[in-house]
Amino acid sequence: MTCTLRRTTALATALALMTGAASAQNLTMSSWVPPTHFLHTDVLVPFAEQVAEVTEGRVTVTILPAPLGGPAQHWELARTGVADIAWGNFTYEPERFVSLWFAEFPNAGTNGEAQSVALWRTYQAHLADLPVFDGVEMLAVGMFGGGQLHHGSAQMLTPEDIAGQKFRMGGPIQERLLTELGAVPVAAPATRAYEMLESGVIDGSLHTMESVVNFRLEDALTHHTIFPDGFYDATFFVVMNGARWDSIAPADQAAIEAIAGETLSATWGRQFDLQSPAATEALAAAGHTITQASPELIAAVDTIRDAMVADWIVAAAEAGVADPATMMGFYMETYEALAAE
């Protein structure tokens, strides 16, 4: 976390000193999931409580009762200081965060904790100094253990099954996968999936298994196609406004760093690892159809992935990544080692 370069102005630094860095501070956090969602109850609330504990009450975090913007706006909410802390999905701003696309390709893994820690270490080693991350203090990154393919009325086992079907998706990786499989991608955040399914705008949607349950889609999505290493993934962030971070006393910064970073990233992924198996069991018990993707479909996805990786290496280099292939290899080697523990 300390290796992150932020271009903070001398005025901001002076202001932090003038206002007294050691004084008690209450930080606001904007979150766009409902307070019943496990990310709120099992990740964000415990983190807020830990911040108060490790700083002996000098720094507290208040999770606002309603989000200050839509899901795709949360990076900017923190960067510009509208909220002190925010979390969100890198996927929802794909052009800004092209450097992270590698972690969203098919076969990124199905162990969310290992993925999230591997992504944190990759960020620290290869990405933290890029200008795109200026203005914020990265508190954690995360992944969710592999997204899958879900449909409202039919099994999707082969490319022929998928052709012509309309699927909600969240970013360019998913869009290209669906398009090249012959489907019709429809861009929208996960929070809109239910209304789109109910109105017939889409036939299916891309989610983790837990998301089908936690976004209350189990009545609308009844057929689930499982890819053993994940059909796609998503990358997430927890960030704090850079100037606000600089206003915190160094001792309290160190205390927060000890519970954030790799620790908070691991917690993020671990919670998804707990949720998805339980959701799969609940959906099976409810009579849903849960089947493995056919070898033909897996092979088709692997071919698309290979082309995406080749194109991304060029795009990531243009976005400032020094050696995209090496970075991706670092992530995969780190993930595989952690998943094997």
From TrEMBL:
One of its GO terms (biological process) is transmembrane transport. Pfam families: DctP. GO terms for cellular component: periplasmic space. Residues 1-24 form the signal peptide. The keyword Magnesium does not apply. It is found in: Periplasm. Its main location: periplasm. NCBIfam families: TRAP_S1. This is ABC transporter substrate-binding protein.
